[in-house]
Amino acid sequence: MSDHRIELAESYYQQGRYDLAIDLLKKLLSEEPDEAYFHGLLAGCLLGKARLHAAEHELGIALALAPNHSYLYLIKARLSYLKKSFRDTLDDCDEASRLDPTNIDALLLKSSVLQTMGQLNEALTCIESAANLAPDSISVTIAFGDYYLNTGELDKSEAYALEALKKDAQNESANILMGNIQLGKGNTEEAEYHAKFVILNNPNATDALRLFSNIKMRKNLFAGLWWRVNSKIAQLSNIKGSLVLILAFLFFNLLSQIVKDLGYPGASTFISLFWLVVVIYSWLMIPYYHKTLKKELEKFSFNRNF
Amino acid sequence: MRDEYQIIDEPKPGAFEQYILDPSIILFLSIVVPLFWIPPFHGRVWIPLIWLWANGYFLGSPTLKKEISFGILGLLSLILTLVLFSQLSITWLPKESLVAYLRTILFGIFFFTLYMIVSLQSAPYAIHQYVKEQNQS
Predict the structure, then answer these.
(1) Which of B5, B104, B115 sits opposite A26 (nearest CB)?
(2) What global pTM score does this model have?
(3) Which residues in A lie closer than 8 A to residue B10 (C-beta atoms)?
């Protein structure tokens, strides 16, 4: 394992340039197929690309090769989190902490899960435990900021975001946190500044791109509604998301038929036309969104890696 | 030279690679084409399914079995709905209305089935496109 390519793959992984990291790790695995760390890192990259099935497979190989590695349990916890198996995530975080009691990432991930589950006091306790382990860690400061952003205490959250930015003004997560806080406060220009700052430094920062899209689409009268609905549906699983769309289809079409049967053909036609407009609007919004975002991003002077 | 390590979800396209199409285009065509032309022998139901399955096969899709299973389940649900409707004895609704309700429900099941297959196939298709671009550059 004395290869500069490993450091390069790690660097790509940290920067969120998962495709490049995957290509490199595939080459490394062709040479050393039994290296647990490569399989684990590859699983992490695949998680970043939302290729959950492949990530699970790679993680299985990694854990079979090195069953007592805290880092692998942290990846496993992230996988469970993305699969929305919150109980499994908590167990994996506990296992990662048991194998390495100084692993603050496991505590911070556990805190995020507990926040999602609505167990806010326990979530805060986890961040405080991480703060005891690493009082100067910027990740802990950002975790406090994220926590207060989630609880709606924007001023407290802003204080932590400022503290994090004082520690490292270039930090991606700190800038994204500040951007989200400013967006929550309605200061869209300031939010945009932080999103742009991150994107210019790292055009692959998906959270910053998401924040940027959020700002642009909210400002856009034509696409704002579509963006809000689409963001909600995107949070659901594939099956749940498509069920929502099909239920909407059934609701409007059956309603139109019921209204017709009740003797109101005009209202029935209106409902059918309304549904048709909704469908056409949704179809048109997809290319419109990509075009608008591309136009906005073209204003940036990116490096050639974008 | 060693073979490159292959990740489990990477597609393995065969001899028919040139016929691979974006699955969302197949979905779009299966919605739009019947507005202008109705294929014979209930083709609007089975043509998109066969086309998506063939596309998955050409792609070497790792989720092909799931895609086929979803399609079969969808077809079975359509048949079951038809059987259930034929057993219903609703006298207070005119037959045309009953047929309209049935058609709406059948379309709901059909589009849900297609959408599930397309969403499964989209991931390997995106990886296939990425690998193709990498090979070309």
Answers:
(1) B5
(2) 0.74
(3) 54
